[in-house]
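Bug: token stream looks shifted between consecutive jobs. Job 1:
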Amino acid sequence: MTFVDNVLLGAAAAFVFTSLVALYRIVDGPTMPDRVIAVNVVGSNVVIVIALLAAAIGEPGALDIALVYALLNFLLSIAISKFTVERGGVL
């Protein structure tokens, strides 16, 4: 493994740790907007980790997976926001 691969894997590990911290906010968030933002952060971090791992192992096909996951993460955020507003809550 080269130095660049190690740096990419280290950055991926840092984003995984950030996602674990955000999981606390998902479980113990005091309000619904906190939980929605935390879910969005975790989803974005997953996309970043997939992209970093794809670059580290030299597998460009994984970038397609990251792109699809990013689109699904965006749609999930929109759906949760729409559901919350229709229920009478305000984001």
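Job 2, same session, no restart:
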Amino acid sequence: MNLGAPEIILILVALVLLFGAKKLPDLARGVGRSLRIFKAETSKMNDDDDERPTVVQAQAQPPAQPAPPQQIPAPAPAVSVEEQARQLEEQAARLRASAQADKRA
């Protein structure tokens, strides 16, 4: 499709009639900004595609044996509340670590 001078002039006159002469510079500025943002985002997408590592398919492995459940040690009868809280925090930390190890496996 070839646009000649008469067609471009007709389009410009229609734009002036539709939007008014005062709004056209703002409209053109907004379109220019939008195009710049669009161009930057598409170039970022292309850069991200280039930086992606290649995916290596893992070979099938036999399922791992589930770890036996950990025994919860019973607190000693003469343990203070602070000591019980410390033991519970240590136990929670061990459980979090084993849960994260299971997620990674």
